[in-house]
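Note to self: keep these together.
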Amino acid sequence: STGTSNCRQPGKLIVATQKDQKIAMTVPVFMDRDSDKSEGSMGFVLPKAVAQEGIPSPGDEAVEISKRTGGRFAVIRFSGRLNESTASKQESILRKWMSERGLSGSKAVESAGYDPPWTPGPLRRNEILIRQINSSEMTR
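Structure:
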């Protein structure tokens, strides 16, 4: 069978591949609010063992496999629901903090969530990440 399925278990998202191989996704889940897709996009971190063995083809053509580039980030952690309003507020706080310390950051912002959707807002862990830019990268 070449279908795809997503199965929720407490603290896990299981994704089936074309070969019906089930992979437990890890946290964080990255959300792209700057996506040109109306629904935005979500990024899941694959377990290290799966990445080392070779990533299997997803069972859904809407799923894309890509590698996230590492780097140095300024990060602010906060609780509550991760939505446009809270993300924008936290981004402003983080950019002010960076500015006060003479740090330059990318215009792009990344959001990360660490909890399943049924976790109450006050108990949620969220982050806003801004890639730092050093002075040599700014002149490129």
